[in-house]
Amino acid sequence: VMTGKITLGLESPVGRLDVTLSAAAVHRLDFGGVAPDGPVPRPVAPLFKRVKKELEEYFQGRRQEFDLPLDPYPPGTDFQNNVWAALREVPFGEVVSYSDLARWAGRPKAVRAAGAACGANRIPLLIPCHRVVAKEGLGGFGGGLKMKKQLLKLERG
Question: Whole-prediction pTM value?
Fold first, then answer.
């Protein structure tokens, strides 16, 4: 049994993505992908196929929620994990503020830390940090603001 992780590349409407996964879960998703398309080792093939399919459906506007096992690597702190869990509850097509997010993660005063946890999100898109916006403007995003606007526009139909 392969316990290791592998990073594979795939094309998307927002550019090439690198997906790091094991047979059990998705561990990272990175923009500006550099990993090769394959070969896809047999143990990770079923999950990689699901990731590809769900992302395709998302970008076609046919999927609003991802149904994939996620296990961020490297792992987050307790607070980061709470923020990432809260992010997964933000509905498709909606946005929340960093202060809402801090409140949901159980530390209403930790607005900056909530923002930092978004920045540290290892699995953007699947953990939708692009749905968090600042009171003034868009806030930040690992994929860049142009991509954040693209994703929000896609979700708003």
Answer: 0.93
